[in-house]
Task: inverse folding
């Protein structure tokens, strides 16, 4: 696992990128915009005519690129993009082709099962109005859509291996269909979670998440997920509290039935000390997605932060939360209960 970089003491270095900015002023920004590593984009510039410009100074040069030129290069480029993984980290299709033909069927069967599960999970997460709404991408490449579904499924399952694979699937979907906004949104959310889990340093993952979310909104501003991805970046990397609340409210206004939007807004409210409001928002998230253990656990935690210990304990028992977060919260509740009992006993002269 990559080592997580220390969190800065102040958000001075985290300057937000303007939505209207057309110029990228470093290899890092170019790589983040293309959702690839700096080494990969340098290789593309050298071998595949990636439109990167240079400015020469007395001691060293600097590079810059324009977003519209990168988009045009990507549209015109029809060749298959080389994977970023090393030979030791081969992708499933590479493993399958290196084996005899008779051993390929388990891989193909596994991929088919994953695609079916991803489709079912995606449909279950949609409310009836969303299911009836026609798609904004009727001509989407089927392979790109399947890659997106697999990425979304693995992102929802979470865990470090799943998140890394989820990122690969979203990248596959983007390179097959660069104009598919949900794939960009999924990539943004994946980078945020990779940073939260400590798999990637925040200084590397968060700007990539921001660039991918901005690209998704540029393609389709009716989506709530990229708004929430940007809110995540502002809250956990830029420390822009006003911007976080604005984006969360914008997402809720766009889709009032989004449990994810209410859940993230509840996290923000707890962070800024508005714990009673945090409880209300987290309960809304759970009501919208009552099968989610994450939202059930978060209700317990927000009640604990609001010092509503008895309600938290009762909610824990009724909901049957069994995750590590719920267990940790319940242990805190036990300590608080013991401390309260001891103080009452002392005041009554029983000890």
Result:
């Amino acid at each position: 696992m990559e080592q997580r970089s220390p969190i800065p003491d102040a958000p001075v270095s985290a300057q937000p990128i303007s939505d209207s900015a057309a110029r990228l002023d470093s290899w890092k920004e170019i790589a983040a915009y293309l959702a690839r590593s700096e080494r990969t984009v340098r290789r593309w510039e050298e071998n595949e005519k990636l439109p990167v410009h240079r400015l020469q100074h007395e001691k060293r040069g600097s590079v810059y690129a324009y977003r519209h030129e990168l988009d045009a290069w990507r549209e015109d480029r029809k060749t298959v993009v080389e994977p970023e993984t090393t030979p030791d980290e081969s992708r499933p299709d590479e493993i399958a082709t290196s084996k005899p033909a008779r051993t390929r069927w388990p891989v193909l069967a596994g991929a088919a099962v994953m695609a079916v599960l991803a489709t079912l999970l995606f449909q279950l997460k949609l409310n009836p109005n969303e299911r009836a709404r026609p798609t904004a991408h009727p001509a989407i490449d089927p392979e790109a859509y399947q890659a997106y579904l697999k990425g979304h499924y693995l992102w929802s399952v979470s865990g470090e291996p799943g998140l890394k694979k989820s990122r690969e699937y979203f990248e596959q979907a983007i390179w097959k269909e660069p104009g598919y906004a949900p794939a960009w949104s999924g990539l943004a959310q994946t980078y945020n979670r990779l940073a939260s889990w400590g798999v990637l340093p925040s200084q590397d993952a968060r700007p990539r998440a921001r660039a991918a979310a901005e690209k998704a909104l540029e393609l389709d501003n009716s989506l709530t997920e990229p708004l929430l991805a940007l809110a995540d970046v502002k809250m956990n990397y830029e420390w822009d509290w006003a911007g976080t609340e604005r984006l969360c409210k914008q997402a809720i206004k766009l889709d009032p039935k989004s449990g994810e939007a209410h859940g993230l807004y509840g996290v923000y409210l707890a962070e800024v000390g508005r714990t009673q409001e945090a409880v209300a928002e987290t309960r809304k998230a759970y009501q919208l997605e009552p099968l989610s253990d994450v939202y059930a656990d978060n209700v317990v935690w927000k009640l604990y932060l609001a010092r509503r210990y008895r309600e938290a304990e009762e909610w824990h028992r009724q909901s049957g939360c069994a995750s590590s977060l719920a267990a940790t919260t319940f242990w805190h509740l036990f300590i608080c209960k013991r401390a309260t009992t001891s103080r009452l006993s002392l005041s009554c002269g029983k000890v």
User: Anything to note?
Assistant: The chain has 17 helices and three strands.
